[in-house]
Design a protein that fits this description.
Oligomer: heterotrimer
Number of domains of chain C: 2
CATH topology of chain B: Pyruvate-ferredoxin Oxidoreductase, domain 3
Largest interface: A-C, 33 and 40 residues
Shape of chain B: globular
Distance between the termini of chain B: 22 Å
Helix content of chain B: 25-40%
Number of helices of chain C: 13
Order of helices and strands of chain C: EHEHEHEHEHEHEHEEHEEHEEHEHEHH
Number of helices of chain B: 6
Helix content of chain C: 40-55%
Strand order of the largest sheet of chain B: 2-3-1-4-5-6
CATH class of chain B: Alpha Beta
Number of strands of chain B: 6
Strand content of chain B: 15-25%
Amino acid sequence: MNAPTNLVYERPEGFTDTPTHYCPGCTHGVAHRLIAEVLEEMELIPKTIGVAPVGCSVFAYNYFDTDFVEAPHGRAPAMATGIKRVLPDRIVFTYQGDGDLASIGMGEIVHAAARGENITVIFINNANYGMTGGQMAPTTLPGMKTTSSPNGRDVETQGYPIRMAEMLSTLEGVGYCVRRSLHDPKNIRLAKKAIRMAFETQARGLGFSMVELLSTCPTNWGMTPVASLKFVEEHMVPAYPLGDYKVSDAIKQVKI
Amino acid sequence: MQKEIIIAGFGGQGVLFAGQVLAYAAMDTGKIVTWIPSYGPEMRGGTANCTVVIADEEIGSPLVKHPPLAIALNLPSLDKYEGLLAPGGTLIVNQSMVDRGAKRTDIHVIFVPCNEIAEEIGDKKLLNMVAVGALLTALPELTLKDVEKALEAHLPERHKHLLPKNYEALKRGYETAQKIPA
Amino acid sequence: MPKELWKGNEAIAEAAVRAGLQAYFGYPITPQTEILEYLSRRMPELGRAFVQAESELGAINMVYGAACTGARVMSTSSSPGVSLMMEGLSYIAGTEVPAVLVNVMRGGPGLGNIAPAQSDYNQAVHGGGHGDYPRIVLAPSSVQEAIDLMGLSFDLAEKYRMICMVILDGSIGQMMEPAEMPEMKPIVDRNFDWATNGAINRERRILSSIYIDPPAEEVANLRLGKRWREVQANEVRYKEYYLDDAEFVIVGFGTAGRVALSAVRAARTEGIKVGLLRPITVSPYPYQVIDQLAGRVSGFLVTEMNMGQMFDDVRLAVRGRVPVEFYGRTGGVVPFPDEILAEIRRIAAGQWTTDRDPRDAWQARMVSVLER
């Protein structure tokens, strides 16, 4: 096959040549790509060590062309802390889903943020446990049906969603904490910019950084990819408002 | 040779340090030694004790049920250890803090008014050193000089100005105990 | 270096520092907290990493992360905290990265108490985390031995890419003994060919305990097993006392072993020819030496500060050839030498338990003593 002459889209350097294992329409792939592009643009690929979670993105390490470790469920921020403390000149990021970060790993994420660990967290919020087949997550919307809330999440007995970006933004150790969405090209561009700022925060030693990304799960939501993007826009965004919850003064000055 | 010593009293009476001084003196004179405290929630304000074992070969148990030597700095400690001492052993009792005499006749019980002697020297905290001085009369493996040297070598620099009074406390305790007929 | 009077916990901390400890992650729990406190001062002073984690879960996973970079790293805890770390230990084992974990054991189960115990033997030696994984477990009985074994623990962990645990009871942690510290070893970049420390001028690396394909997991487990056989062949350590002419032998580790030494000496003054075997590595276990002894002595007495856990390992080595008796104290109670001496006398008089599990007989005797 001849090389195309008008190449407009190719695999970023930060990616390996690995076919995706994610479901059609899942936005994990988009989030992965944005990270890879940012690492390439910032020339950080050889310096970066990623920490994969337990969940659908357990195999994240197959895609990124960086060193990677695989954490126990929820413990990625602790592992990242261990790595960053012995290798402070490397770039360390975790990639975590909502069950991993907001449920079993709540202790680890809060304290990594409170300590101001100089790591970057990419938090995928798709309102359910994807890998185990779509159970209720801490981020599942009220009334939303999952395999463990078959009649819809009843807040009286199953509690309310947790808004991680808002929560962590109250902590002094946090340098950058925002929420973005991956449901359309405009928001994807904004998400990429946020990921860039998160890694800029780390590269400058400005403390803990997190980007929460509202994401889809067409398979477990039982929707088409298009319908699931619509669901994010119409139901997730109102429950999880997009915005900058904490941006340190130093990072506000950064122009990219 | 192996000698075991239990030192007991209220927290704040310098029980643990008294044991450490003996341990340092034993170490500095080339002996093998263990020092082990009772530890636990009772550390704050309650009774405290430590066991010191001095030997010339590898020490087995760091704890001993029936020691030949003990110091009781208060009444609860006298009540507890008088009964546990090995027959023929020596028990140093802080007379300032007890209101009874000895019950056993098969051990040597030496009453020393540690608080009063310490106050005469001018530092009531030295009551533990008075008791250690008294104990040395029954522990020929260590001399007064050995313990003085240990204090000099291991007392933190900021406390070094207290050395003369510590020496005096040791000596007064030793002399008081010596005067009591065995 | 001259001897200094060292408290067990602080000695362990300093010995780890001198062995080149690059990072420490821990959480306060009695009776090991002095290790954390000591290192909170010492590590930053040397420009090394120290983090008081949010929990033992956090601590062990920080250890896991740092271990993946090839750094010398350890955590320390005490029984309930070590239970929380079991998840991380299994992952560390499955990822084949070296790490050192010290357990200053206390009375249990549950919250138990803070007194000395050896009741985490099975957790350390036989169980703990999930999955098939070997681990090296060292059991010092004195402050000097704890110092020496700390240095060894890092070397073994790295040599075999394996967890090395050091288990001791609270009394060794709190005890002071004269001891000699080794010289300070410089921090060296060991540049392991597996470490995830940034893919600078090399191919990227992945460290993980995932083998989603069962045959691949089986290969991994067999690889761990092969390495374990090397450990068994090369790393068994123990100390013998009075075994040359011993007619029967006590087996005890850590504090129970040294309490037994006092009892053995007392028995010898009574003319009873009893010896002592004190395992220093409880994993790998000195099965072979017990196997050989079983061929020439009339029996064994196992003493532990638990309900009879190592007892099973002794019986495994003895294979029913001679009786194996048990004496233990549990729940945080430390035995006195005279208790073990009483057992020695009973055995010397020929009263071996042969009709039932010796632990049942021991339990019956304990109950009758405690009711009195």
